[in-house]
Amino acid sequence: MRACDVNCGEINSQASALQNEPRRLLKCELVSRGLEAFSRAQPEILGKGGLTLPDFVESARMRWPATSPTAFAASFSQSMAAAAPPHPGARWGEPEERERRRAEAEKENAEMATYHKEARAADEKMQNEQEAARWAQALKRAP
Asked: How far, CA to CA in Å, does 128 sit from each of 54, 75, 125, 138?
């Protein structure tokens, strides 16, 4: 549809050189929807911002893309898909690919083990400090 509109624009620009020829080709969407021009009540569906879908009863209100509180969440989650590691494709079963995935898994497991070991040590240290403080308080209160 855009390619057709581009061709119509080229024809219209060539027709502007002709004298006494006011007729111009309309955009495909205008003709297909039976409109003379786009307006707030009858917006363009395939505009510069991409594809939109107006409400059938209230054309000024867009049904898609959604403008709801969850629209941000949806667009954010779609943007996160790019962060996922690429699929190896047809090579998934080759020994080199399996070895690479095994090495990555081992590295991640080692990092997680280190993290949990450090977190456990920090928790234990904090608990010991709290117990020591409670014990000191109890000794102060004792007769």
From this structure: 63, 46, 5, 15
